[in-house]
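Hi there,

I know you've been waiting on this one. I reran it after we fixed the sequence typo, so this is the corrected version. Both the input and the resulting structure follow.
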Amino acid sequence: LSRKKLIGVRDPLGIRPLVLGRLGDAYILASETCALDIIGADLVRDVAPGELIVIDEDGLHSEFPFPKQPSRFCVFEYIYFARPDSLMAGTSVYEARKSIGAELARESHPEGGADVVVPVPDSGVPAAIGYAASAGVPFEYGIIRNHYVGRTFIEPTAQIRHLGVKLKHNPNRAMVEGKRIVLVDDSIVRGTTSRKIVEMMRQAGAAEIHMRISSPPTAHPCYYGIDTPEQGELMAARLDLEGMAKEIGVDSLAFISIDGLYRAMGQEG
């Protein structure tokens, strides 16, 4: 941004989103469409991978200065990073998360059944809604989220992360006690938060806890705009599925498959 022009560029692989909006005579560039909604602007279109947009006193100019490459859009935008009220490439993030949850239920609903589907708020809510609808099991808020604390997985020390989990979540005992619960979350990174939440559900009286994750196992760090931990800190890099379930303390654990994720997104893997 300079005094006379606004320049926006999207990487040639299209890993991260970028959208073009308009408010009156003014053009707007933003990472997500919800930003346009907030200020009452209209969505014009997605900025294409590798596209360079210049907005100046003569209007909008577009060019493609990079060699064309295959699209590598980060699916974690749909799973976790983007706000659910945004559109990504014309697809509702909220609907995508519900679809992923429904596919997760088709792939891995506990054999013995369940009494209630509980999301880990807020990240697991849309997937849990889709899961509950697909499995025919009631959806309930078995965990109440405190919205006045930030994200726990990026806190610098384990002690602060542990305290953050307790400040961030509290069990809704009436919805949990004596019940077989399916606990739905979007990911397991270090496993610290998952372990504390499962412990909380046990203390609240859950009879069985079956954890279901709406992304494949996170076994490798990502350096494309999201600061995830080193590989040695990632639970899925250290342990197999059985080992993860044991360390987290659940009766069963399942992640959506890569193929299931593609199906949920309306693509074939």
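Quick highlight: The first helix runs from residue 33 to 39.

Best,
R. S.
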